[in-house]
Amino acid sequence: MYTALIILGVVLVLIVLLALIAPKTYHVSRSITLNHSSAKVWPHLKFLKKQQEWSPWSRKDPNMELTFTGVDGEVGAVSHWNGNKDVGEGEQEITKIVEGERIEQDLRFFKPYKSQSDCYMNLDTVDENKSKVTWGFSGKNKFPMSIMMLFMSMDKMVGKDFEQGLENLKHNLNNEI
Fold first, then answer.
1. Average pLDDT in the 164-173 region?
2. What Gene3D superfamilies does this protein's entry cite (predicted)?
3. How many CB atoms within 10 Å of residue 86?
4. Strand ranges, E, within 4-64
5. Residue 76, CA atoms < 13 Å, CB-side half-sphere
6. In the chain, which ranges are E strands?
7. Can you tell me whether residue 114 is helix, strand or coil?
8. 23-175: what CATH class?
9. Average pLDDT for residues 96-102, to the nearest whole number?
10. Which of 24, 105, 114, 146 is the most buried (most CB within 10 A)?
């Protein structure tokens, strides 16, 4: 009995120590420079339906259920998805728009696990026919997920999807007439 209590105490101390040193926040972002004007790129970022055309997750589950509420491209518009195990279920809501420059969204996942992140897309003009898109998100790691993040990297888990999405955006823009 005494040994079991000592083991339990050690495990609890270990959990507390891991929780104290675990990362409390995360931030992931990727950028791409496009050979297109900001005016041509902006609609692909601002409108939720246009985002689906280059989203890496839309390609992981082309049969996912999508619903849109509110006025697309305006604060308060929401895109809700329910898909396979690769995309789960969640929604994104436009929370702020700086016209032609930045869009911010609240990203909420329901399945496979609940989480909330702040998502953004920045559009910078490089020159008349070139622009730069930065896509990122950040959030808080809650216990016990924070401990898991000692052994996992949000950047490695999501970064490749962001890179693929930006490449999809580039491809779509290059193929527009």
1. 96
2. 3.30.530.20
3. 13
4. 25-34
5. 2
6. 25-34, 65-69, 78-82, 89-98, 102-111, 115-127, 130-140
7. coil
8. alpha beta
9. 97
10. 105
